Structure formats: C-alpha cells, structure tokens
Amino acid sequence: AATTLKPQSVIDAVVRYYTDYSVNIHRGDYDLSYQVSDYYEKTRKVVASFIQAEVNEVVFTAGASASLNLVAYGYGEKYIQEGDVILSTESEHASSILPWFRVASQKKANIEYVPMTEDGQITIENFKNAMHSKVKVVVLAHISNVLGYVVPIKELTEIAHSFGAIVIVDGAQSVPHIQTRVKDWDIDFLAFSAHKMYGPTGVGVLYGKYHLLDSIEPYYLGGGSNARFDRCGNITLKNPPYKFEAGTPAIEAVLGLRAAIEYIESIGFDKIEKVEHELRTYLVNQLKEFKHIKIYNPDATSGIITLNAIGIPSQDAAIYLNSKGIMVRAGNHCAKILLDVIKTPETIRISLSFYNTHEECDRIVQALREITLEKCIDLIF
C-alpha cells in the first residue's frame, strides 16, 4: 500500500535510459531525442490501453498527489462557486481531500461526507442519500488505503452524474490490483502513481475525459506546455495532455512505468486477484484466532489488513515486527479523519501483494502470536 518492490525489467528500463540515451524529449533535433520521444509517447499509449482510455486523455505527472492537486486547482478553482458542495468520504487520503479543503475555503464552498457503515464501508444507499443538487464534485478512493474496501465506483458514478456532479477517483490502491475500465465506469478523472504498481517513484498519471481536460487550466506553466507566447503576456497553450506537462519530465520513470505495466499484464489481473485474495484469507483467518489482535477490516477484499495488538502502540508493534524482518506501516496512514471514525488514533497496516507467500504470512502470524508490550519496550530501550 505504501509502495512496491520493482521487478528487474523496470530497473533495466530505468538504467537503459541513463546508460544508452540520457537525452530530453520533444526538444532535440537529433536521433536519440527522436527515439526517446517515441518511447515516451508509446508509453502513453500503453497506459491508455491499460486503463481503457484514449491516448490524449493520459497526462503524466509527478505522482498521484500531483494528479489530484491538478484536478482540484484546475477544475475546482474554475468551476466551483460559493455554496457549492464537494462530496467525499471520511476515509480519503490527505492527497485527495486536502486540495479540496483549500478550494472550498477559497471559493466559500462546503465539504460534505458520505455516511459510513460501522465498519467503515461506503454503500450505494448511503451515497445516494448524501447526493443532492448542490453537489458539484465527488471525490472518492476506489480502494481505501486504510481499510481496503472496494467502492462500487461504477454505480456511484452513475448516481453522481444523475445529479450533474463530476467524479474524481483516487486509484492509487486499485489500479495495480484491479482491471481499470475508465470508459465503462464513466468516471471523469482518475489519479494513480507508478511506484505503487511496481514502477519507479516520481511519476504518476492523471486520466481525464478529454473535454474536461480541455476546459481546465494547468496550475503551473513552462516549456513544453505552450504553443506560443509574446511580450504582452498572451499565452497559447498546447492541447491536452501536453499543456499539463511543462518542463522536463522524469523520462526514465515514465519508461519504467511502461515496463511495470507490461510486467503486470504478463501476469494478468485474474492471477493477481486470485493470489492476493488467497493470501489475505489465509492470514486473516489465523489472526482472527488471537484475542489480543483486533482487525478493523476482516471482510475487506483487497490485500490491505489493518489491525492493532491490543494495549501496544502501533509504532512500537511495527518496531517489533521489523525486528522479525517484517515491514508494516504504523500510524494514521495519511487518513486522519478516518481514524476518528474507527475510534483509534493509529493502526498497523499489512499490505499484501501477489509476490508475497504463505510462508511470509506464517512469519507474520508467529510474530503477532508472540508480541507483548514488554518485548516492544525492550527493543526501544
């Protein structure tokens, strides 16, 4: 959930750029620049095919956070008016909701939240009841980065559109694990990052319906994003996606993203989902037997398992697990509002991927079986 290991093909793609090319794109009148520019644009086609979008609807960014900020400031500052409502959930990641806090403050708009069930899920009925005519934007994570529940995004989008609202989806936790179908779901924007899908850090993607991308302004400008400008300050921007891609991008990371997608496709989502579900079921069923372990999302279907060892601060527990060679995240996971909902200030998050094994799950079970506050304190002091 925090990041992923990188297959050798991704590492090779990054190294190959620096060893064999190391030139800029769309700027040089020489063979290497033409070649790398072609590789770069072919990656855009690969991404478009991967999420079932059009090529001109794929914008490369610095990451999912950059993508979400681009939409908030590009769309929100242009179209949100005083009294409008941005509808979200209490389980959103900071990168998804904080930009809208600022837009709402600047525009005198309001933030409202879809009521959640006791275990932190968003239901179609609750969403429908939360929608009304003043809602102009819906901001949702497809999969919560804390509780791991999969939101019925297609059904929620249909409801939102019936009220005239657009739908912005944080796909950081879903795109690597579930086949993404932006056209079928009819979502308006989708943000995700490469490093959570076995790719490099420093690059992400914003998908947007072309007419929406065409209607909004980039929140930063520079070389490569404009067709012309003059001394009077008149600027003619390029068409999407290029008007959002000012400056020299992380070229090596984009090429690495292509390798990551090809790696995922070589395995297939059917196998990925099957393995991750089996591992989750195997681990959760054992942890349920421990009275000193509280699982907050036992019924989720993604690879995210959120828990606490009762009476042990989450970071102390994480340090103990680290001593056993187990890496987990502890704390609020950048979703500070949600932890008020589930009545705990912090949790431990275990994130499973298809490359994990039953043996690794057994090591987690053994470590959590033996964990005590005294053992954690001994490690710290």
Task: Explain what you see.
This protein is an alpha/beta fold. The protein is built from 14 helices and 13 strands. The strands form three sheets. It has a seven-stranded mixed sheet, sandwiched between helices. A hairpin with a 5-residue loop joins strand 8 (226-229) and strand 9.
What order do the SSEs take from the amino end to the carboxyl end, as H and E? HHEHEHEHEHEHEEHEEHHEEHEHEHH
CATH H-level superfamily of the largest domain? Type I PLP-dependent aspartate aminotransferase-like (Major domain)
Major β-sheet strand ordering: 1-7-6-5-4-2-3
Number of domains: 2
Can you summarize the main beta sheet?
7 strands, mixed
The CATH class of the largest domain turns out to be: Alpha Beta
